[in-house]
From TrEMBL:
Protein name: Lipopolysaccharide assembly protein B
Main location: membrane
Stated role: Modulates cellular lipopolysaccharide (LPS) levels by regulating LpxC, which is involved in lipid A biosynthesis. May act by modulating the proteolytic activity of FtsH towards LpxC. May also coordinate assembly of proteins involved in LPS synthesis at the plasma membrane.
UniProt subcellular location: Cell inner membrane
Length: 381
């Protein structure tokens, strides 16, 4: 049977027409989806501006589904998850970005940095540490080193903290001499607890050589010398502190007075404390000067001299303790009330976050800031 070419003549135009219609339908669908994705993106931005994080996340998820190849949408979505505290989903988003082969080095480093932040916020310090080490040599290296430094400080890994601080100082990210000296002092405290005083002494000598202006090194060195039965050497360390960090003398005043009595260097101690008192009156310095006075009335004069320059409820209560009340029965309750009222004024306060404590801290337990506690009491600030 002969083949009828008439059907072929009709079929070719028909196939062309159907293909054209199909392509137009695909193009229309693509345009619709292309318009929907930006709408979802801008809707998400609007929710963000209105601080509606849940709705913004839903909008960005819709936008990502419409355009899964856009890395910026993934970054926005991951950051939103992190801000909301949904760390598992933030980690999945950023790990997905890292698994893609079509993103460049810049975006890959950015995703690695975001992943490290996810782990940090989630408190997964070991995984954060690994992620941060992978940023070495990237544009985020300085930020990664600072984050690593924070991790090692929180975990009290002082040798590793020293390594990172030295890298930051080499990279000209600021001066870390004080922090490095603090790390040496921390290591010295650990050595003292284990009974290795020789190592502690070496560490403290390194600390004062690296940062002579840091009071902590001299105070720790004096304490170690005193424990070793060397009161003269301990006194000399505090005398050096008065030269290098005079504003920290209130922290050393009581120890200086005790060492002066042990060594018989009372006049020298009075001179050092008087110089500090003339520079800036201090409750602790005044108490130390009073303790070095053999005559009780002269000691009480020290309190009055301070009160004439600066009012102080703490010292006023101590002065009144030596007064004879016309009604002796009233002295005990009045003295108790004054002691309770002045107790909060004896605290130390962090200048960075306001955290108050009975003892002086070199590293604030509240905000983790170094050297944020003044040497003076709350009443004197």
């Amino acid at each position: 049977m002969d083949f009828d070419f008439t059907w072929l003549l009709w079929g070719l135009p028909l196939a062309f027409a159907l293909g054209w219609i199909a392509s137009r339908l695909d193009l229309r669908q693509w345009r619709i989806e292309g318009r929907q994705a930006p709408k979802a993106y801008f809707r998400g931005l609007n929710h963000l501006l209105n601080e509606q994080q849940d709705q913004a996340i839903d909008a960005f998820i819709e936008a990502v589904q419409g355009d899964p190849d856009t890395a910026e949408l993934h970054f926005a979505l991951g950051n939103l998850f992190r801000r909301r505290g949904d760390y598992d989903r933030a980690v999945r988003v950023h790990e997905h970005l890292l698994s893609r082969a079509d993103i460049g080095r810049k975006e890959r480093d950015r995703a690695q940095h975001a992943l490290a932040l996810d782990f940090l916020k989630a408190g997964l310090l070991d995984r954060a540490e690994t992620a941060l080490h992978r940023l070495e040599g990237s544009a985020y290296e300085a930020e990664a080193l600072l984050a690593l430094l924070s991790i090692y400080e929180r975990s009290r890994d002082w040798p590793q903290a020293k390594v990172i601080a030295e890298k930051l100082e080499t990279a000209e990210q600021g001066s870390f001499s004080n922090r490095l000296a603090h790390y040496l002092c921390e290591e010295a405290e650990q050595a003292v607890r284990t009974g290795d005083t020789e190592k502690a002494l070496k560490l403290l000598n390194d600390a004062v050589a690296r940062a002579p202006q840091l009071a902590r090194g001299w105070l720790a060195l004096s304490s170690l010398k005193s424990q070793a039965g060397q009161p003269d050497a301990a006194f000399n360390a505090l005398r050096e502190l008065q030269k290098q960090a005079p504003s920290a003398m209130p922290l050393a005043a009581r120890s200086l007075a005790d060492l002066a009595r042990q060594t018989g260097r009372l006049d020298e101690a009075r001179q050092l404390l008087t110089i500090s008192d003339q520079r800036a009156p201090s409750i602790d310095v005044t108490e130390a000067l009073a303790s070095l006075c053999e005559d009780r009335e002269i000691a009480r004069t020290q309190y009055l001299t301070h009160l004439g320059r600066e009012s102080s409820l703490v010292l006023a209560a101590q002065w009144l303790a030596g007064e004879q009340f016309s009604n002796p029965a009233a002295q005990a309750p009045v003295q108790t009330a004054l002691a309770q009222a002045s107790m909060p004024l004896k605290r130390y306060r962090c200048a960075a976050c306001g955290f108050e404590a009975q003892q002086h801290f070199w590293h604030c337990p509240g905000c983790q800031t170094w050297d944020s506690y003044p040497a003076r009491r709350v009443e004197e600030l």
